[in-house]
Known about the structure:
The structure holds two protein chains of two kinds.
Chain A: H1 11-22, E1 38-42, E2 51-57, E3 60-71, E4 82-87, H2 104-119, E5 129-131, E6 135-147, H3 152-165, E7 168-175, E8 178-187, E9 194-202, E10 205-208, H4 212-217, E11 220-227, E12 232-238, H5 246-274
Parallel strand pairs in A: 4-6
Antiparallel strand pairs in A: 1-2, 2-3, 3-6, 5-6, 7-8, 9-10, 9-11, 11-12
Chain B: E1 29-33, E2 41-47, E3 50-61, E4 74-81, H1 96-109, E5 121-131, H2 136-150, E6 161-167, E7 170-173, H3 177-182, E8 185-192, E9 197-201, E10 204-205, H4 209-238, H5 255-266
Helix pairs in contact in B: 1-2, 2-4
Amino acid sequence: MSDFSSQTISHIDREFIAELLGKGERLDGRAFDQYRDIQVEANVVPAKAEGSALVRLGDTSVVAGVKVLVGEPYSDAPDEGVIMVTAEMSPIASPLFELGPPKEDAIELARIVDRGVRESEMVDAKKLCILEGKKVYMVFADVYPLEYDGNLIDASSIAVNVALLTTKFPEMKVEEKELVATGKILSLPVANIAVEHTIVKIGKHLILDPTLKEEFVQDCRLTMAIDEKNNFTALQKGGGTGAMSLSLIEQAMDMALVAGKDIRRKIDESVKAVK
Amino acid sequence: MSPETKPDYLISPEGLRVDGRRPDELRPVELKVGVLKQADGSASIRQGKTYIIAGVYGPRELHPRHLALNDKAYLRVVYRMATFSVPDRKKPAPSRREKEISMVIANALSPALFLEEFPRAVIDVFIQVIQADGGTRCASINAASLALADAGIPMRSLVPAVAVGKADGVIIVDLGDEEDKYGQGDVPIAILPPTDEITLLQQDGFFTRDELLEAIQMGIGSCKYLHELQKDALKRAYVRKTPDGEPVEEEDEFEDDLETDLGEADMPEEDE
């Protein structure tokens, strides 16, 4: 059970965390550039979702599921399929989340994870076209947080990646204006993989993968999506009004580049485990 | 997206159901208590391919305040299906069906709770359907009542629930998705086991008077079995075991102190 019923933290806690960081330590004993324990389980919704994954990042957990539908393409991209990521901050995940339509933070979460997938051109949208201008595959990846103990972004990014990588769906074709299944089962045309890494600034320190307590005292956060070739494909500074110097940003980028390798291995392992 | 086809029969010539069950047989049920760290209480249920997680928060301050009840706690149940829990993607916004089921579940659970103990507060029950394969409202009640117990909310009893139905003229218990869609009826029920009182009763389809009574009887029987599973799940979460599986006798360290305190401070001296 969490200690928090509102987004406040005492000055004592705030100073304690800052003092610890000054000594090079964190509340849970991690190094500044270290992720919490990560567990990834693919295919947790085998009977109904085309792809799915459950990710535990310390005491944060999220489940992501993929549905593949057939629909009409957008008029400005008639030969491209549609990929969309949504996230909901369901109140089951934390006493901090309230009922009601998605608020700013839920929309930001969904959009950051969505950009991580979209900007890296992870899925080749042109290969999701069935009949130009008429029928394309529409891929929806939806994220549901189950437990919120900080850093939903990275947990969601990993979950969405694994869910998309393990997606299997029936091939469809248009025959005499009717949509019919060919009987073949397809995987998504994955061209690239980009994972998001979140680093927060507290005072003059940078730490990777913040817990909820660390998020409470952060000045701001920087989320970076990094692909297989170490390209940065999306950035977002958020999580507060704090400013960051260029040298800190450079430092954060290097931290994320190192952390990325380990996470990508975890993703590969979990994808292989279901194949 | 997966195309669904109507099976040729729901009850085979041998009297078995599409998934090989006998008419009065439940699907495999797996209950777990304490699955979410952030929630005050939580539980999950797998019943066949149905998979649901319930989290409870409270009693806590109610927002918005105008919903507060002056004589008891407000039991707020939110039943939501994940977009990917069904064959076609469900729209993310809450549907009318989800709202009705939320209310029905609240009505099924509240007779078991001492809500009058917490006036003006809210007890939140959040139910997330991860995979839906028939019987989600009953499975939700099974999980939610365990989550309430896990949260330490005072309760008269757990609330087991099951859907009874009719397929090819035979009364069957715990409908699967196909039996729900192509069968002749569906009667979800929930009971309070100590008194056998019914707290949830709905019905769709065609039943004669006798069939309906038989269905309810059968449901009560299955609920009693589910109640045992619920109690086992709670014990698994709370009774500490030695490595050989024997329950640990817990020593109450504070017992002695408490008695002395009461004895010295609060015992009124009798007047001669």
